[in-house]
Amino acid sequence: MKDPLIIFDTTLRDGEQSPGASMTREEKLRIARLLERMRVDVIEAGFAAASNGDFESVRSIAEAVRESTVCSLARANENDIRRSGEAISPAARGRIHTFIATSPIHMEKKLRMTPDQVVEQAVKAIGWARQYTDDVEFSAEDAGRSDIDFLVRIFEAVIQAGARTINVPDTVGYNVPEQYAGTIRTLIERVPNADKVIWSVHCHNDLGLAVANSLAAVCAGARQVECTINGLGERAGNASLEEIVMAVRTRADVFPVETRIDATQIVPASKLVSQITGYPVQPNKAIVGANAFAHESGIHQDGVLKHRETYEIMRAEDVGWGANKLVLGKHSGRNAFRARLQDLDIEIASEEHLNHAFSRFKELADKKHEIFDEDLHALMRDETITPETEHYRLVSSRFHSETGETPRAELTLVVGGAERHAQAEGSGPVDAAFKAIETVANSGGQLLLYSVNAITTGTDAQGEVTVRLTKNGRVMDGQGADTDIIVASAKAYLNALNKLQSSAPRLNPQI
Ligand SMILES: [Zn+2]
């Protein structure tokens, strides 16, 4: 009998802290439902005290998700814990995850607290959290650089106070596998009542070792891994869920654990998260990259045809490749359209909303004959934009690009309800479009990133553009999709401007 390995997904919390990757409540719900279908054990839905929007997102997920535990992060103070407790109250199973820094540098420079005060605060935090739920997790922020004797002391105290899961995060991605496994083994040996709790790991990928460190820790006794879809997360990201799950499954001879995960949901989840955040998946990414199961070299192909196991250690269909079926086309009716949106967990607020979305679907189907799930996600993302969050809107556009001539863009925009015309020249039509927008917006924002990807295959595919703007230290990503990539670029730029305009600054806890 193998031990269960608890998969704790933090795509919606740590993943969302990737620069520019903020998600709406509706988008978070869609991802949460897919994680539930994947049979993720714990979904960290957010940091409820960060803002009212974050609170509402956590609460909506706690209401909607029945099969997975829904968790909210909280700093070790009474207000954060109360907000988390209120946000998870509708959950079938709710968890509060509280944390405090334990490394000398963090205690001294950031918290300005003595080690004794840190232990006292952590114990109080567990007591407050236990008023809302029995399922309380404690994290020692920057455990990877903390003194082992101090970790033993604080963990003993929080277990005594009622913490059920003890997380040992490598917050800055500094650890290496053997040493990290040694830390986990030592803690389990030395902390009194270590057998009464689940030991958890949370590894960052700054040295590319997040998955290796997590798996080494599993061999040393950890029974919960915190991870994200596509390895999304602060800086270089977190351990990637798909790599953890498939390593444990493929090398069942090595790992003494098993997960409950339905791996066929992995590729759909990867695509959904990539599309919502605008973070493309690199082609050579393990499990979910476009090349992960493509055997292009002639020698390999010959081997694969003769006997698949010569080069393949996993089957593409086991992780959900090939599930992207052709769904809709030009002749699909309103009911088929509605049914497919329901299958994809996309919320439709009203009949009017459905009618509007359906007419846009028809326009797209005229330009592009095969409409895939990815196209529907992109279409519906535009549909969730409300007038309150849309200060700038593209009405029409005209671009000129010809050999030997300076590219030019002419745009008609609606800005705060009034129609405005704009034109500019640029080094290319995309540059011209952005300059034209700025003649009207004068945003003062600085362009940090521009990327374009085809949503599906074929030259008639929609181009999906991500534009990252920064202003006054805030970073915002905008997205736009269209079969014309210059139009998609203009939409993405306006989307980023709208987000800079409408969203409030938020807290980013580092664990
Ligand atoms: Zn983290």
TrEMBL record:
Keywords: Acyltransferase, Amino-acid biosynthesis, Branched-chain amino acid biosynthesis, Cytoplasm, Leucine biosynthesis, Manganese, Metal-binding, Transferase. The keyword Cytoplasm applies. Residues 5-267 form the Pyruvate carboxyltransferase domain. GO terms for molecular function: 2-isopropylmalate synthase activity; acetyl-CoA C-acetyltransferase activity; manganese ion binding. It catalyses: 3-methyl-2-oxobutanoate + acetyl-CoA + H2O = (2S)-2-isopropylmalate + CoA + H(+). Its cofactor is Mn(2+). One of its GO terms (biological process) is L-leucine biosynthetic process. Its EC number is 2.3.3.13. One of its GO terms (cellular component) is cytosol. Pathway: Amino-acid biosynthesis; L-leucine biosynthesis; L-leucine from 3-methyl-2-oxobutanoate: step 1/4. Mn(2+) binds at D14, H202, H204, N238. It holds the Pfam family HMGL-like. PANTHER family: 2-ISOPROPYLMALATE SYNTHASE 1, CHLOROPLASTIC-RELATED, HOMOCITRATE SYNTHASE-RELATED. This is 2-isopropylmalate synthase. It comes from Thauera linaloolentis (strain DSM 12138 / JCM 21573 / CCUG 41526 / CIP 105981 / IAM 15112 / NBRC 102519 / 47Lol). The gene is leuA.
